[in-house]
Amino acid sequence: MPRTNFQELLDAGVHFGHLKRKWNPKMAPYIFTERNGIYIIDLQKTVKMIEAAYEFMREVGESGKPVLFVGTKKQAQSAIADEARRCGMFFVNERWLGGMLTNYKTI
Predict the structure, then answer these.
(1) C-beta atoms surrounding 41 within 10 Å
(2) Which of 74, 79, 2, 80 is CA-nearest to residue 44?
(3) Cβ-proximal residues to 87 (8 Å cutoff; 6+ apart), any chain
(4) At 38, is the secondary structure helix, strand, or coil?
(5) Mean pLDDT for the stretch of residues 3-29
(6) In whole angstroms, what is the distance from residue 1 CA to residue 48 CA?
């Protein structure tokens, strides 16, 4: 049973990508088309990738490995904190500092 609904993604506007001039060529396989100077993301591929990410994270969680939840946008801050606390994991929901993972001792 899919956990990701194509119509919900469409209704949420997930398919709207960056302006054509700001795109990253590595995203080419995931672009459906371009309209009015904005790339439209292929939601069928998005659903598949979300499902793959879900399965991966489920396996990580079941193995007992730690997970770092990151969401610094205002809309996501409380959900990130709530869900991380619910499963006893770490989170960053304020400003992300450069070097937080690679140079933590210096921060």
Answers:
(1) 19
(2) 2
(3) 61, 67
(4) strand
(5) 85
(6) 13
The β-bridge relationship of strands 68-70 and 90-92 is parallel
- Which token pair is 65? 């490995």
Residue 102 buriedness (CB in 10 A; 0-12 / 13-18 / 19+): exposed
Tokens of 45: 């591929």
Residue with the two structure tokens 């956990």: 3
Nearest-angstrom CA–CA distance, 36 and 6: 23
Q: Each residue of 69-107: pLDDT tens digit?
A: 999 999 999 999 999 999 999 999 999 888 888 887 776
Strands of the chain, DSSP E = 16-19, 31-35, 38-41, 68-70, 90-92
Which amino acid is present at 94? E
Q: Label residues 56-83 b or e (16+ Cβ within 10 Å = b).
A: eeeeeeeeeeeeebebeeeeeeeebbee
- pLDDT per residue as tens digits for the range 29-45: 999 999 999 999 999 99
Q: Which amino acid would we find at residue 71?
A: G
